[in-house]
Design brief:
The chain starts with 13 loop residues before the first helix and ends with a strand. Strand 1 (45-49) and strand 2 form a beta hairpin. The strands form 3 sheets. The protein has a two-stranded antiparallel sheet with strand order 1-2. With 153 residues, the protein is an alpha+beta fold. The chain has 6 helices and 6 strands; from the N terminus they run ααβββααααβββ. It is globular and about 60 Å long.
Length: 153
């Protein structure tokens, strides 16, 4: 388990302490937690939060190497294996009303790039080999860190 840097603010850069102090003054909510994380990320830090919307486990983001290329290439097969597991597919079929479209029109079109563009993060194991990328302690890559996210194959 990693050290929770919320417990040792003296180890943090001043700009990170300022961000934390700003959010400590706000009423706890999921939106506040997400905004806190989004503001911490450019400074190389992240945290988690629970059902009570209280941030915890502030940690330095581990990185493979700095992102120099603002294009991230995603392995199409690995992405499909991750995204279209049984439970996700079942929910996706219901959310998109696919069965009704198939019954009514006989077809349903799916644009994988649009799905990828609508995501906030993907797991590191879906990235095409040979790239430098940044990821957090849960091996997730935040797509907002990149200008272009496209399939390599």
């Amino acid at each position: 388990m990693t050290q929770d840097l919320f417990n040792t603010p003296e180890l943090l850069p001043q700009e990170v302490r300022n961000i934390i102090e700003k959010y400590n003054k706000m009423e706890a909510s999921y939106d506040v937690c997400r905004n806190l994380i989004n503001e911490l990320k450019p400074h190389g830090y992240t945290c988690d939060y629970g059902l009570e919307a209280i941030p915890y486990e502030l940690t330095k983001i581990k990185t493979n190497q700095p992102v120099e290329n603002k294009t991230l290439l995603v392995d199409r097969n690995a992405f499909c294996d991750w995204y279209f597991d049984y439970e996700v597919c079942k929910d996706f079929f219901y959310d998109q009303d696919i069965l009704q479209q198939l019954k009514t029109h006989g077809t349903f079109n799916l644009d994988l790039q649009k799905i990828l563009n609508g995501m906030d993060y993907i797991p590191a194991n879906t990235i095409a080999e040979g790239q430098d990328y940044t990821f957090d302690e849960w091996d997730e890559i935040y797509l907002s860190d990149y200008e272009n996210v496209i399939f390599a194959n």
